[in-house]
Amino acid sequence: MLIFHDLFFLIDGAMVEVGVIAPGFTLIGTDMKPKKLTDWKGKNIVLAFFPGAFTGICKKEMCILRDDLAKLEGVNAQIIGISVNDPFSQKAFSEENLLTFPLLCDYNREVIKLYDVVQLDFAGLKGYVTAKRSIFILDKDMKIRYKWVSNDARIEPNYEEVKKELTILV
Fold first, then answer.
1. Which of 58, 80, 77 has the alpha carbon at shortest distance from 132?
2. Counting C-beta atoms within 10 Å of the first and last residue's C-beta, which end of the chain has fewer, N or C?
3. Residue 44 is part of which domain span?
């Protein structure tokens, strides 16, 4: 049944909305090992999709998540960064920025399709597909409680709003 559930969302990504159970996935981490979304079940989860490692705004966003959200007391939250970069680039990006949360690699672009956050022709490069900058907050039962997606990669999420949404889940 879970496989059908995931395939349904893959075909019709528009169904990934607040109030539904987040589609499951498995992606490779910077350690080259598969990580399942359900590995963090029981925690509040912040899925932070970003266009690409080593870009200015992505670096700023990941560092703000590291410094602000990761230190929220009592929210039992796990931040997970996801981009289409390969695990080698993600690892270097994570190490350079001293990130304290996992970065997962959607190099096949399956999860960005699943969550309907596909950015076509990124930076004017015809055919280059990345993730739209977006945030999904999942509760401990994997239900989507907050969704923010930008069609403009230069726009950052409202970090105060994200923090507020996380504290509501406590």
1. 58
2. N
3. 2-168
